[in-house]
Amino acid sequence: MTTITDRLDELGITLPQQAAAPAGTYVPAVISGHQVYTAGQLPFVDGVLPATGKVGAAVTADEARGYARLSALNALAAVASVLGSLDRVTRVIKVVGFVASDPGFTDQPAVLNGASEVLGEIFGDAGVHARSAVGVAVLPLNSPVEVELIVEFS
């Protein structure tokens, strides 16, 4: 049986060793029952945001899609930090994504596909989830996107 760790290797995906440090008084992820809820995760790479600004202005939709993917991977690092291994994840239940949007930008769902697609690549059918894609005026640190997850585990 292929593990999630094996699947990440096959896909050439390396998760951060730990979730980014919170920017406030909260933790990156909490367990409740058989679910893990993550805090919103930004697309940090080695502790640095690769871009800032609004999608549809300073950031293109295609760039933001990649940042949504990075944010989802950072959220998985938060999940792994409380579970010890992503091999315990049995289902991705929900993805909530926020897109800092220029007033005329209306393609938030396409941006969040970056997160949804990587979860499908990693977890297969167990990665199919419910989702919200929300346009907002501004995000923490002027990030273009933010993603949070709810996953089930055994």
Describe this protein's structure.
With 154 residues, the protein is an alpha+beta fold. It has a single domain (4-11, 43-153), classed as RutC-like (60s Ribosomal Protein L30, Chain: A), CATH 3.30.1330.40. 31% of the residues lie in helices and 23% in strands. It has helices spanning 4-11, 61-83, 108-123, and strands spanning 29-32, 35-38, 89-100, 130-136, 145-153. The chain has a five-stranded mixed sheet with strand order 1-2-5-3-4, covered by helices on one side. α2 packs across α3. The longest helix has 23 residues, at 61-83. The model has no long low-confidence stretch (mean pLDDT 95).
Secondary structure topology:
Layout: H1 4-11, E1 29-32, E2 35-38, H2 61-83, E3 89-100, H3 108-123, E4 130-136, E5 145-153
Parallel strand pairs: 3-4
Antiparallel strand pairs: 1-2, 2-5, 3-5
Helix pairs in contact: 2-3
